[in-house]
User: What shape does this take?
Amino acid sequence: MEKLVSARELKKLFGKVEAVKAVSFHVYKNEIYGFLGPNGAGKTTTLRMLTGVLKPTSGDTEICGMDVLQRPIDVKFVTGVVPDEPNMYENLTGQEFLEFIGSVFSMKKEKLNQRVEELSDAFDVNFLGKFIGDYSHGMKQKLMLISVLMRKPRVLFLDEPTVGLDAKSAKILKMLLRKYANEGSAIFMTTHVLEIAEKMCDRIGIINKGELIAEGTLSELRSRSGKESLEDIFLNLTGEDEIKEIVDNL
Ligand SMILES: Nc1ncnc2c1ncn2[C@@H]1O[C@H](COP(=O)(O)OP(=O)(O)OP(=O)(O)O)[C@@H](O)[C@H]1O
Ligand SMILES: [Mg+2]
Assistant: This one.
């Protein structure tokens, strides 16, 4: 199987805080890899290192066989990133933003228009003429998704992609990600929604306090832990199975 993402001993220190401690994993072609962990576990920090936004304290990442820090431009051309808090030019309209991204990535005008139209239909987007500064969180999220999906990148990184999306858009996104993976992409996504991880992800990595504490398919995780639901596996691994006690004491 072809490895499209390889993280080797990725580590990040923020001052004295070890946000990510020597995390290693691969994401293969045709695969959706779900990255799970409690708040503050190091998911976003890992994703930012994988995409070259944040320089690791040590360790490295390869995307499609290219080192992320040594070949940043080549890597950007095969990669799409949907961050959890989309940060876009507020003074542009959605359409202007998409055209700008299209020109950065040398997309042909007709191709861009066609893809934007298809994706706008899929996500019920009818606000591309408005300024991004006037968008709601969900509207920004959808624009970000269109700007990434219109390029059909080989490798996709998504941080909590369904947060802020309405039910129909979330469903369409999930189906599209599966389709792209089947067509040859590799997808790395973080999520807190265990049901999404359970239904969508081919393999799951669980990070806790900066450490990758479990990895495998859902059935591998089940047989290793002796627990049936991903929720029980997750809570057991991340040491939060004393929940009943906590609630009782509240
Ligand atoms: N820029 C930064 N400067 C200092 N500390 C940071 C920075 N970014 C993250 N951290 C710290 O690193 C740790 C991991 O944070 P991270 O955002 O990666 O968590 P996460 O798993 O994405 O959490 P969540 O589920 O809440 O999104 C936390 O302790 C956080 O406070
Ligand atoms: Mg995060």
The mean pLDDT is 93.
